[in-house]
Amino acid sequence: MALQHESIDLGSPPTEPSPSAAHSWFPAPPPPIYTCTLTPELVAKAREELQEKPEWRLRDVQALRDMIIKEQPNLRTRLDDAFLLRFLRARKFDYDRALELLLNYQAGRKAWPEVFHDLKPSTVKHVLDLGFLSVLPNPDPNGRYILCLQPGKWKPNDYPFVDNVRALYLTLEKLIQPEDTQVNGIVILADYTGVGMSQASNPGPFLAKKVVSILQDGFPIRIKAVNIINEPMIFKGIFAIIKPFLKEKMAERYVLHGSDLRSLHRNIPPSVLPQQYGGIAAHLDMAAWSRVLLDCEEEFIVEFCQPDPLEGVVLPDDAFLDGDSAGGQDEDTFRALRSQLYYCY
């Protein structure tokens, strides 16, 4: 029943980006062994805004890892450096709050199986083809990618609303991979053109609360602004459903522009906006983000569509020992080994 530990390939990454993904306009997935990719400017920004000290970064990751192993021994989660850094950065290197966020992240995956079961891009291709969401190819001057939502394109008779949530979650998972995003955060642009009573009455308060809980309490991403444009009169009713679940800080980041593009441009410059929003960038290509996600199908299968990665696997007894006990290997080399093992945890 038990497998030999040699079956774990420690010399190769858990996933390999497809050739098409490697040539995408969006950054490729990070390697399994953490290497900082932040520019000196972003290192300084992370230090100032997130209390991230480069010289203590991996020490802080190890401290969070130790907390998880000690306080949550039954939690099945990745423990590699790059993954845990997302949660530390999202909570400004507060260990307790980072652990709470991680627990919420994992609890959400278990509590909402209709969202997370068999979660991969091909299962939401109809959402992507419809244009319900996309990501603009150029970040804003603050380095933040812009997630563009067009809820008016969805009709309740097309497919269940939960499919939109699935596509949104996959998008967030992809957006949070680059370290730039972990430091800079993202901006949401929601165009409510075409939204009527049928969309407003669906999903309802219960589903709305679950979506909001993912965005502000259950996912390691910093949402810096939510720009609403072309909102109909009925949007007041929609926002009345959402607002009770928003924290004050998040509610203050909602900006309603109506049809005033000049107001929008004060928040998102025309240089990165497509033509339909008064910008000078190319017309919004709804298929571009779809290609990014679909090119990463195998990556998401590994992340969301596999059984427990350690089921039946016996790891070597010394796999998680300190570098001094690792048969003479130097600390950096052993950290690389542990990072790959923790990825499989």
From TrEMBL:
SUPFAM superfamilies: CRAL/TRIO domain, CRAL/TRIO N-terminal domain
CRAL-TRIO domain segment(s): 120-285
A GO molecular-function descriptor: phosphatidylinositol bisphosphate binding
GO cellular component terms, semicolon-separated: membrane
Annotated region (Disordered), positions in chain: 1-24
One Pfam family linked to the record: CRAL_TRIO
InterPro entries for the chain: CRAL-TRIO_dom, CRAL-TRIO_dom_sf, CRAL/TRIO_N_dom, CRAL/TRIO_N_dom_sf
Domain of life: Eukaryota
Protein name from the UniProt record: CRAL-TRIO domain-containing protein
Species of provenance: Muraenolepis orangiensis (Patagonian moray cod)
